[in-house]
Design brief:
Order of helices and strands: HHHHHHHHHHHEEHEEEE
Number of helices: 12
Number of strands: 6
Strand order of the largest sheet: 2-1-6-5-4-3
Oligomer: single chain
Helix content: 40-55%
């Protein structure tokens, strides 16, 4: 049984766990707007539930949000398959201390969200419930209305998939910040050689414009192609007036692009041995709502 104040006022436990619930929905969906919609639906379910029978409000709410996200993600797969160009998750501003919260840190990184996107909706749900929240296979089976055998197989498959694709990168904050500063200097100076010195030999860049703004329709590979593409962007007349600022995005050092005071893009990246290995530019204007400071996770 939960405490009587929580029974009398359903807002208390929901508010207490709201940050975690939003992060759960965001990890499932990779979309700030969709995550907020899921939280609204979860609130309606929680408000109408028999809360006197709920022993653990946190666990109940996480399961509710996961199931709602699973339903939404399943119905959205067809839309994502028809997406124009590379699909990247919506960037989300995070506080610098998020790394101290183990349940929130790694699985909100852009790199991990891209890996999670390659899972099926069920694999994604099972992976998060098992690996992030530590639910048993039996508990997940009950929550998702699947057999325990199915959940075990799905969990094993998802874990192997994620481990095989989990990118390697420098976690050292100082090293990432130094790389960020050098990147900003190379961009502002239009220095092709300096940009090339920052990139790993096997560097890849993804650019998500969603067909709404100009962006590369396919990933670019290699130092020369990536460096010329990045420097070329900032040399265009329409790019004059763009300012770049370091920011904490998805739990890591990143870069925001502004036109005046309006954010028009976000860059997240993986750095290995001080060199950029993967760069991900999100410039789809429909996917920048998470850059509102009031929505910082």
């Amino acid at each position: 049984m939960i405490d009587s104040p929580a029974v009398a006022d359903p807002l208390v436990p929901f508010t207490e766990h709201r940050r975690l619930l939003f992060a759960t929905a965001y990890r499932m969906l990779g979309s700030v707007a969709d995550a907020e919609d899921v939280l609204q639906d979860a609130w309606l379910q929680w408000d109408g539930a028999d809360r006197s029978a709920v022993r653990n409000p946190r666990a109940y709410l996480v399961r509710t949000v996961t199931n709602l996200s699973l339903n939404r993600l399943t119905s959205a797969r067809a839309t994502r398959e028809a997406y124009v160009g590379p699909w990247l998750p919506e960037p989300l501003l995070t506080t610098p201390d998020i790394a101290e919260e183990t349940e929130l840190a790694e699985t909100v990184s852009t790199a991990m969200l891209v890996v999670l996107e390659s899972l099926s909706p069920l694999e994604r749900a099972v992976f998060l419930l098992r690996e992030v929240f530590g639910y048993s296979h039996a508990e997940i089976a009950t929550a998702l209305e699947r057999s325990e055998a199915t959940v075990r197989q799905t969990a094993h498959r998802a874990r192997e998939h994620v481990q095989a694709r989990r990118p390697r990168y420098d976690a050292d904050t100082a090293r990432r910040r130094e790389a960020t500063d050098r990147f900003l200097a190379a961009c502002s100076g239009g220095d092709l050689n300096a940009m090339m010195e920052l990139l790993a030999p096997d560097v890849t860049v993804w650019s998500d414009g969603g067909g709404k703004v100009t962006a590369a329709r396919r990933p670019l590979h290699g130092v020369d192609a990536v460096a010329r593409w990045i420097v070329g962007i900032f040399a265009k007349p329409e790019s004059q007036g763009i300012t770049l600022r370091p920011a904490h995005i998805n739990g890591e050092e990143g870069v925001l692009a502004f036109m005046g005071d309006v954010p028009i893009g976000a860059l997240t990246f993986d750095v290995v041995d001080g060199l950029f290995v993967n760069l991900r530019f999100q410039v789809n204007p429909d996917k920048l709502t998470g850059l509102d400071p009031e929505r910082t996770l």
